[in-house]
Write a structure and sequence with these properties.
It is found in: Golgi apparatus membrane. This protein is α/β, with parallel strands linked by helices. It contains 17 helices and 10 strands.
Length: about 550
């Protein structure tokens, strides 16, 4: 009897191949591709298509609502009671409520004079205004400069106080919370918050406070940001396009339909009673502003967004500063969603549809799905399907839906419509970091609570010029790290982006030779964008 030999299935396509390393890898690929890789990729395509449809429906809904708001909705002063505050001949200025201005700072050498000066020049009775500079600076020289600036304004009769803490516990949330505990602010009814690079117009309070005075159910009045350095470089133009959509559409729709939106952390006026009722400032995430807004909304408070009330500010003009900012803005909401989703579900004070809006639209689609579908679908799944022709991606999911979403996103900044295509490529690159940060927030892992101060250059705020003054200074948890010399080539390199550039380039070359869908055009352009960011030059392109 002949001993039976074990038999292995070897596809005909590889029979007769010399069994070197390459051949063995091909054999393994052919063996696992049909039963394992293809089904997994099909599942990945279906999931990405589902996420793309969710984002598409969200954008279309927002587009329809914003059109209705602009055409048919009443203006804020028509929807809410608004009576301008005037001096009374008999009572004087006592009919003006006492307003607290809080300006949190951390080593803000370049911009501290701008924010303090703007606050001191607000058109409001001086005896009804309390200005509080919350300085958490670790540099003694800067602390002295800020204190002297406060003293200079105090000598002019301005009620301004320079406030410091022993420790920086809680970061910005801790500083704001500590500021509200001071005895000299107990008589204040409202608090306006401005970050160190913000310059409110003199009439800011006169246009916002009356909404709070006349409508006791309103907790927050949020103004729109305007950017003094949006033309500084291509990086700032890209940021302007994204943020203008946020303010023009997302904030406006939230205010008009559910009287809810995320507080932007600055350029807003809060009713102090609402802050206290909501539990005050908390430092459990890096988005203390959004945390407070959600908690206040769950207690029935309403928010009002005023698109025509604007405050000037500065955009990050270095890639390092922008990346740290985006990490915080992506990680924080995901982490807050993890901590608050069940609290929102169990809440009894708000109606069902508002809870659906907050959980599904505000958090799930905008803060999680939007980042993930952009990265996984367009930077991972579609490139891999080029290598696996058995996996089919419908053109409506790969081209038509993204095109409509992009067009809808462009409504916020019509002047930059010619940059729309590059904005798409740039957003795809940044989705890599936003997705990574989102997972860190959802899993509450690693850098989930990392707070890095966004660098302000100052010159662009004061004179709107195009000078750049070095790399971004950063802080990890406690203090800013020492500035590094920008001229060192290696320090400019971002190896994660360069790795994806190489991956997309290889997929593009394969599609150029063997593909049928001409994806290589997109892949080569995306490769260039990943490479520009990878070599650290996006902030230098004017």
């Amino acid at each position: 009897m002949v001993d039976s030999e074990p038999k292995f299935f070897i596809p005909e396509s590889i029979q007769g191949v010399n069994f070197d390393v390459t051949a063995q890898m091909r054999m393994v690929w052919e063996v696992i591709k049909a039963p394992l890789i293809v089904p997994l990729m099909n599942v990945a395509v279906y999931i990405c298509l589902a996420m793309a449809l969710m984002l598409f429906m969200e954008r279309v809904y927002m587009g329809i609502v914003i059109i209705l708001v602009k055409l048919f909705w009443k203006k804020p002063h028509q929807r809410y009671k608004f009576e301008p505050l005037q001096e009374d001949e008999e009572l004087g200025n006592t009919n003006f409520p006492v307003v607290l201005i809080q300006i949190p700072m951390f080593n803000e050498k370049e911009v501290y004079k701008v924010s303090i000066g703007a606050a001191c020049n607000l058109s409001w009775p001086s005896e009804r205004l309390v200005i509080q500079v919350l300085d958490d600076s670790t540099d003694p020289t800067i602390k002295q400069m800020v204190e002297m600036e406060c003293q200079r304004w105090a000598s002019k009769g301005i009620n301004i106080t320079y406030q410091i803490r022993e420790t920086r516990g809680g970061y910005k949330a801790g500083a704001l919370k500590e500021g509200l505990k001071r005895s000299y602010v107990k008589h204040c009814e409202y608090v306006a918050i401005f970050d160190a690079d913000f310059r409110p117009e003199p009439d800011f309070l006169r246009r916002s406070i009356p909404f709070l005075v006349g409508n006791p159910d309103i907790a927050l009045v949020q103004a729109r940001w305007r950017f003094v350095n949006s033309d500084e470089c291509l990086l700032t133009r890209m940021q302007e396009m994204s943020l203008d959509y946020h303010f023009t559409v997302e904030q406006e729709v939230g205010s008009a339909t559910h009287a809810f939106f995320g507080f932007n952390g600055t350029a807003g006026v809060w009713r102090i009673a609402a802050i206290n009722e909501a539990g005050g400032w908390k430092d459990r995430t890096t988005v203390e502003d959004m945390d407070l807004a959600v908690r206040a909304s769950l207690r029935g408070w309403k928010f009002l967004y005023l698109g025509d009330l604007q405050a000037k500010s500065e955009l990050p003009s270095t890639l390092r500063a922008f990346r740290f900012q985006q990490h915080r803005w992506s990680c924080g909401p995901a982490n807050l969603f993890r901590k608050m989703v069940m609290e929102i579900v169990r809440n009894k004070k708000v109606r069902f549809w508002k809870k659906v809006y907050v959980i599904y639209s505000f958090f799930f689609v905008r803060k999680i799905i939007a980042h993930m579908v952009t990265f996984f679908f367009f930077c991972v799944v579609i490139p891999i399907t080029i290598l696996i022709p058995e996996v089919y991606v419908p053109i409506w999911g790969a081209v038509y839906i993204p095109s409509v979403i992009t067009i809808l996103n462009s409504v916020g900044t019509p002047r930059s419509i010619h940059l729309l295509f590059y904005w798409i490529l740039f957003e795809n690159v940044m989705s890599l970091h936003r997705t990574k940060a989102t997972f860190i927030g959802l899993l509450e892992y690693g850098r989930a609570n990392e707070w890095v101060v966004t660098e302000k250059l100052g010159d662009s705020v004061n004179s709107n010029n195009k000078n750049k003054t070095g790399d971004a200074a950063k802080k990890n948890n406690v203090s800013k790290a020492p500035k590094k010399t920008r001229s060192k080539f290696v320090e400019r390199l971002n190896f994660l982006e360069l790795g994806f550039a190489a991956f997309l380039f290889l997929c593009g070359c394969y599609d150029f030779v063997h593909g049928k869908h001409n994806y290589f055009i997109y892949l080569f352009l995306q490769t260039i964008t990943f490479s520009i960011v990878g070599f650290g030059y996006v902030g230098t392109i004017v």
